[in-house]
């Protein structure tokens, strides 16, 4: 109806790219996905899925070659081709009305959680935990509970290699107010206002800003935000996988670990909800890649010392 026959989107972890490519295939719309070249390497499975669906994936090769740079390239495309192009923003970031639109669509998960908790327990949860990069899954989960003062809203951001290093994405913990991609928010920036490059084991949290509504929740104290390191995220990933049979995305694994810390301080009759923002199929290669470094720190070694088929043959003899 708008005459926009060309859809563009940015993606970090690739999930938004897959979703956008899927609906474009259904509706017969041309689809362009911008993705940092480093994220394309880390999320090769989702890149392949996007291309299977008929969309083009264009690498962002500037800066850190991650989500920030993909957003930059998508915005440049959008303002150049606004007559026939709609930018389907993948997180609760950017200028109005994008953060509001994304929040309202994402609220389906928060509204369903609220209804289902009432049905299961007869009351609201005591705490809700979600990972925060740009913050789309978290604001969708948090927003229906903002007016419920009894519910703690807890965000888990990426501490990367640690807050005492320059390799993290802990915008709330280490950021300062600034304007980024058209919104006033917390930013990882230097004294001159230049954006600092970020790091996270999870592509979706590797972003130097955060949605403006999260900034407001942080500034007013309505929500609390904690930094979770790569090592801790791998521990959350392992625990949910091995204890529940659910392989979570590495982004969500930050929330799992923070939820474990939070639950230790809660009483047995209290209830906590974790927003699992994505599945971990896309991250299996990344986990295998970082395990030689991180595995020894958490006592997790999945490497074979020798060919397992030879062990099986010896045992049969």
Radius of gyration: 20 Å
Strand composition percent: 15-25%
The 3D shape can be described as globular
Structure summary, number of beta strands: 10
Helix content: 40-55%
Task: Please tally the helical runs, counting DSSP H or I stretches of 4 or more residues.
Answer: 12
Which stretches of 5+ consecutive residues score pLDDT under 50?
none
- What structural category arises from helix and sheet content? alpha/beta
User: Largest beta sheet, briefly?
Assistant: 4 strands, parallel
What's the order of the H and E elements?
EHEHHEHEHEHEHEEHEHHEHH
Q: Please report the distance between the alpha carbons of the first and last residues.
A: 71 Å
* Largest sheet, spatial ordering of strands: 3-2-1-4
**Average pLDDT for all residues:** 94
Keywords: Lyase
EC number: 4.2.1.20
Protein name: Tryptophan synthetase
Enzyme class: lyase
């Amino acid at each position: 109806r708008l005459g926009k026959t060309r859809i563009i989107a940015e993606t970090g972890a690739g999930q938004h790219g897959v979703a956008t490519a899927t609906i474009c295939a259904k509706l017969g719309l041309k689809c362009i996905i911008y993705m940092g070249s480093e994220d394309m390497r880390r999320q090769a499975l989702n890149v392949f899925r996007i291309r299977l669906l008929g969309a083009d994936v264009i690498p962002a090769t500037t800066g850190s070659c991650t989500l920030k740079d993909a957003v930059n390239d998508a915005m440049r495309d959008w303002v150049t081709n606004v007559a026939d192009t709609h930018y389907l923003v993948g997180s609760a970031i950017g200028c109005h009305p994008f953060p509001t639109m994304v929040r309202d669509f994402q609220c389906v998960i928060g509204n369903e959680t609220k209804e289902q908790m009432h049905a299961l327990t007869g009351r609201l949860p005591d705490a809700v935990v979600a990972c925060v990069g740009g913050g789309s899954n978290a604001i969708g989960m948090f927003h229906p509970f903002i007016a419920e003062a009894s519910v703690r809203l807890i965000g888990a951001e990426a501490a990367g290699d640690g807050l005492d290093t320059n390799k993290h994405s802990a915008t709330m913990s280490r950021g300062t107010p600034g304007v980024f991609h058209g919104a006033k928010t917390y930013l990882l920036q230097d004294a001159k206002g230049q954006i600092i490059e970020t790091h996270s084991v999870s592509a979706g949290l590797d972003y130097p800003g955060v949605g403006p509504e999260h900034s407001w929740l942080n500034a007013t104290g309505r929500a609390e935000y904690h930094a979770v390191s790569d090592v801790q995220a791998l521990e959350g990933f392992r625990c949910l996988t091995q204890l529940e049979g659910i392989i979570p995305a590495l982004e969500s694994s930050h929330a799992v670990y923070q939820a474990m810390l939070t639950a230790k301080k809660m009483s047995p009759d209290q209830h906590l909800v974790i927003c699992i923002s994505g599945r971990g199929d896309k991250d299996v290669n990344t986990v295998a890649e970082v395990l030689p470094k991180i595995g020894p720190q958490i006592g997790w070694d999945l490497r074979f010392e020798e060919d397992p088929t030879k062990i099986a043959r010896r045992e049969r003899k």
